[in-house]
Specification:
Structural class: alpha+beta
Number of helices: 8
Strand order of the largest sheet: 1-8-3-6
Distance between the termini: 47 Å
Largest sheet: 4 strands, antiparallel
Shape: globular
Radius of gyration: 20 Å
Length: about 230
């Protein structure tokens, strides 16, 4: 299990720049824990004091918010190995968690204590400095994604949403990077899968894009940009 955890941590944004020896040192620390949560188990509760950063090793974790009526709203799913959750509350020194995390299926989670991300001494630890720097990069990326999501939600048509989405995922060479499945794309754009497929088909017929399996290629950049 530790070998799998080490590989996922090293490939994750939090582990950027860490050597195998660094990873081994982190995992040998007594404060570092690898926990397995059965489906329905709570990882942290709303109202608890934040003290850890959580990294998903495998499984699916839901971040939920309780309402006054007793219902729980699913805020987001954590389902990609190496994805962090709960870190914002710790970094911002929030006194309590304002939501809770629950295993939606059997899940393995790496739990890192707050001390790994604090300024330690005048000399400091190279590993701690790398972890803090990587954590800041994670925050920056999440803020960018949130900004992109707000922009997409502000669009008035499905085509406009698709145009914004494709442009944001376009590399300098014009190719599209990391395009997810149609289900994930529809969820991100807050549209139904049939509506998304229909509009992509229309855009392909008009020569704006070309679809080959899951791949989408922009064939008329000028026409696409008319919808931005």
């Amino acid at each position: 299990m530790k070998e799998d955890v080490a590989a996922i941590l090293q490939k994750s944004p939090l582990g950027r720049g860490l050597t195998k020896e660094d990873i081994d040192e982190i995992l040998k620390d007594k404060s570092t824990q690898i926990k397995t949560y059965e489906k329905g188990n709570t990882i942290f509760m709303e109202g608890e004091k934040p003290s850890k950063i959580f990294l998903l090793v495998k499984g699916n974790v839901g971040v939920l918010k309780g309402t006054f009526s007793g219902k729980r709203i699913l805020i987001t799913n954590i389902e990609h190995p190496g994805e962090l959750f709960g870190e914002v509350f710790l970094f911002m020194e929030k006194p309590i968690y304002e939501m809770q995390a629950e295993a939606l299926e059997k899940s393995v989670v790496l739990e890192l204590q707050n001390e790994n991300f604090k300024e330690s001494s005048a000399t400091g630890s190279r590993i701690e400095e790398l972890l803090r720097g990587n954590l800041m990069s994670v925050f920056a990326m999440k803020a960018y994604r949130l900004s992109s999501k707000v922009r997409v939600l502000g669009c008035t048509s499905i085509r406009e949403k698709i145009a914004v989405y494709l442009t944001e995922h376009q590399g300098k060479d014009g190719s599209l990077k990391n395009i997810p499945s149609r289900e994930e794309m529809a969820d991100y754009l807050s549209v139904t899968r049939p509506s998304l497929s229909r509009e992509l088909g229309n855009m392909a017929k008009e020569g704006i894009i070309k679809m080959v399996g899951r791949e989408i290629v922009i064939t008329d950049q000028d026409m696409l940009e008319e919808y931005l």
